């Protein structure tokens, strides 16, 4: 008889791709009771290095896909943490060859959700489950507890749910993970999360810029302002780290670090995806769009150098009431932040309708309370709003947020006016206010746009006083108008 003790142990979860995110996630998994983790990387050296540096993790190393599959208990469950695109497709193809029906392949990268829909459909035909899971929190979150947004089948969630709950961040006793929906729902929600992140960061940057230019305060002094803000309704991870960034002094020059960092911000694609998808869905996400465009503008120094000769206001911008101005900026920041989240949740709701996903918006807000970049105190308020009214058409109209917008709108307008008069770009502040005024308007100039479209292209229009679709026979001198009911 074979001694049972000689039977190799099997892992309940495996990780493919051991760069920083993958290795940190593997370590997180291994640190949780009940998990045994198999690890595989195309380059053997990374596997050897991880196993050697963390013997306490008890990793089961594999050096081929066959070994990796053999090291996993059934249903085999593997999380892919490799570069999005072709590398992900290559790993999926390799796993499909060694996995069996009922096994689970999880893509934990920042995949574009249509790719996830395509992959899930293809893998499903083999009987294997494919899950696209958004994982937020960066390197630290992967190691200590991320916010996780998995899609996939109900069957896969039975096995995967307990594993992901074991490693997720925890907020008020609840793990920051939920089964978002089927096929691409998880990566869709993660995409919008990142879009909101773009807007939030841009708004904070504009607040800093306005305070610095308007008051003459140093970055360290503005850090104190942000630290104070973090004690109130703006409490969030991004406000917290902004204070830390502004306090940092460059060791080489002795200058504030923010002053020696090149003012060109890149983007990895999720912001653009959020905007492109919103356009396709017909959902206005102007705050996210302007934040994305602001990064694009910053990344064209050759154009900015030429345009520097264009005229602006003659007088230097300085405010008389420093404390009052800072309070105005705080209120404008909070109001604009509400709009960013409201627009983001609009897009999630529209995406769910378009792709037949059942997404609990309140549950989404709850899993963003810890572990992710946009974690913030007021996410509980969003959860409360959707708990009270699950079909809430506009998040900004929920009582808590409507009251905050009512309270802050005067300050918001003063800030946008001041920025405009001073020639200080504030695209996220300005577009958020314009959206606010647009969404609450009783009548918009779109009526004129429809008239123009009918004039040059016979696109037709509808009327406020009767049913049907109409076209006007516009004459050359526009004096003879005949309406046709084309209904």
Q: What's a concise summary of this model?
A:
The protein contains 20 helices and eleven strands. It is of the alpha/beta class and 487 residues long.
In total, the number of strands is: 11
How far the N terminus sits from the C terminus, by CA atoms, comes to 84 Å
Indicate the low-confidence ranges by residue numbers. Answer: 1-6
User: What share of residues are in beta strands?
Assistant: 5-15%
Q: Tell the overall outline.
A: globular
Radius of gyration: 26 Å
Structural class, from secondary structure content? alpha/beta
Q: In order across it, which strands form the biggest sheet?
A: 3-2-1-4-5-6-7
**Quaternary structure classification:** single chain
> Mean pLDDT across all residues, rounded?
94
How many separate helices?
20
Biggest sheet layout: 7 strands, mixed
- Could you estimate the helical fraction of the residues in percent? 40-55%
Please describe what this structure looks like:
The chain is α/β, with parallel strands linked by helices. It contains 20 helices and eleven strands. The strands form three sheets. A seven-stranded mixed β-sheet has the order 3-2-1-4-5-6-7, with helices on both faces. Strands 8-9 form a two-stranded antiparallel sheet. A two-stranded antiparallel ribbon has the order 10-11. Strand 2 (37-40), helix 2 and strand 3 (60-61) form a beta-alpha-beta unit. Helix 8 (185-215) packs antiparallel against helix 15 and helix 13 packs antiparallel against helix 19. The longest helix is centred in the C-terminal third of the chain and has 34 residues, at 322-355. It is globular. The termini are far apart. The model is unreliable at 1-6 (pLDDT under 50).
